[in-house]
Automatic annotation (TrEMBL):
This is DUF4890 domain-containing protein. Residues 1-20 form the signal peptide. Residues 64-86, 120-135 have a biased composition (Basic and acidic residues). Residues 41-86, 116-146 are annotated as: Disordered.
Length: 146
C-alpha cells in the first residue's frame, strides 16, 4: 500500500511538472535569420560586409527550405522510404551548397571554426535525440524496486 501511494504521488508530481514545461518560442523565418546572423557574428567575429553576405545567404536559403517544407506538408500521408531517402539527399546537397557558399564569405580561420561549431551542434542534437529515445522507450526510469 505504501509503494502504491508513493508511486501515485510521484506520478501526480511528474504530470504536474511536465505540464509546467515552457513551450519553445516560435520564431518567424526573418527572426531565425536575424538570430543566426547574430550568433555567427559573435562566434566568428564577422565584419559588417560578412554580416550582410551571411544574412543574404541565410535569407535565400530560408526561403528555399520553406518551399521544400511546404511541398512536404501538402502531402496527406507520410513519405515512403524512397521519398525519405530523396529528401535526405536533397538536405545533404543543400548543406554542402551552404557550406561552400559560407567558405567563400569567411576567412580560412573563420570557416574552420564554423565547421567545428557545426560538428559540435550536430553531436549535441544526436545526444538529445538519444536521450529522448531512451526516456520514451517505456522503461522504468524511477530506479525503484518492488
Amino acid at each position: 500500500m505504501k509503494k502504491f501511494l508513493l508511486v501515485a504521488l510521484l506520478s501526480i508530481g511528474m504530470v504536474g511538472f511536465a505540464q509546467n514545461r515552457p513551450e519553445r518560442e516560435r520564431l518567424t523565418p526573418e527572426q531565425r535569420v536575424e538570430k543566426q546572423t547574430e550568433r555567427l557574428t559573435k562566434e566568428l567575429n564577422l565584419s559588417s560586409d560578412q554580416q550582410k553576405q551571411v544574412k543574404d545567404l541565410l535569407t535565400s536559403e530560408s526561403a528555399e527550405m520553406q518551399k521544400m517544407r511546404g511541398e512536404r506538408s501538402d502531402r496527406a500521408s507520410k513519405p515512403t522510404a524512397a521519398e525519405r531517402e530523396v529528401m535526405k539527399k536533397q538536405m545533404t546537397a543543400a548543406k554542402e551548397g551552404h557550406n561552400a557558399k559560407m567558405k567563400t564569405i569567411l576567412t580560412d580561420d573563420q570557416y574552420k571554426k564554423f565547421v567545428t561549431n557545426q560538428e559540435k551542434s550536430q553531436e549535441r542534437m544526436r545526444e538529445n535525440v538519444e536521450r529522448r529515445r531512451s526516456n520514451s522507450d517505456g522503461g522504468d526510469n524511477t530506479g525503484m524496486e518492488d
